[in-house]
Amino acid sequence: MKFVMPGGTGQVGTVLKRALSAAGHDVVVLSRHPSGPGEVHWDGVSPGPWAAEIDGCDVVVNLAGRSVNCRYTPANLRQMTDSRIHSARVVGEAIAAADRPPRLWLQMSTATVYAHRFDAANDEVTGVIGGTEPDVPGYWGYSVGIAKAWEREQEVAGTPHTRKVALRAAMVMSPDRGGVFDVLLRLARLGLGGPVAGGAQYVSWIHDRDFVRAVEFLVARDDIEGPVNLAAPGPVPQCAFMRALRAASGIPAGLPATRWMAEIGAFVLRSDTELLLKSRRVVPGRLLEAGFAFDRPEWPQAADDLVRRLRGRAAG
């Protein structure tokens, strides 16, 4: 099959392209800065010659969007919003104009769309959409609003011959350099892998190979459309998440951090504390109901595998 992946040069795109190419599929990445074979230029805003790649392809996986790992300044929030909305809109226009439209459009979204909560897990049916929770910083609502607008662009696109799925993805854990797992492991090695602000907030995640398998599962299942949570069924509190990561990598202890310490650290790293403090307790209701079986459903085993693969690459 032919896959076209707008914005596929980041960590998630690298994971997906590597696996799909290894499986024998033709993968074309649309990038603002193409640098190798299989990459085609686009600007993420305007129609262009890149649209010919979508006409006749089998699956579009739109991963385009400015990284959320930044300070939530007004300028960065605007870039995060515009990059997602504009890219989804122009992808929809290209699919609508295609003589041979793809049969499936997988649109990246985020598990951050759900509310900050501890009492129960969020699935696609009973989950609570965030943005109006009490006792959280008001600006957290921006990321929820961005996610909702992102999904809305796909929903309203006039693509009657193309099935549409919004991937409400948790953090994709892979051993790739620069990915979220790599960053967390480096923090743990510096002694900073303890509980943050008590550590009760839930972390939702998905092992990279389960992410790929879930995408392949959704490609094969013509009966699934709409929002789908791509998260392991075992979200855990942040303190337990980091404890398992330290155990997998042989790190005996991690210093705890208060909320104000997290604020300082996020400022130094040019990131935002929402990524650390929001409780993302998300479970894959629709995937499990459809019969998808996770290879790595629990974090300790997933962390062991990721550390082993990381060490194997370093040794090689």
UniProtKB/TrEMBL annotation:
Q: Where is the NAD-dependent epimerase/dehydratase domain?
A: 7-222
InterPro entries xref list = DUF1731, Epimerase_deHydtase, NAD(P)-bd_dom_sf
Task: Name a Pfam family for this protein.
Answer: DUF1731
The UniProt record lists the DUF1731 domain at 273-306
Which PANTHER family does the entry mention?
A: EPIMERASE FAMILY PROTEIN SDR39U1, SUGAR NUCLEOTIDE EPIMERASE RELATED
Protein name (Swiss-Prot/TrEMBL): Epimerase
Q: Which organism is it from?
A: Streptomyces cahuitamycinicus
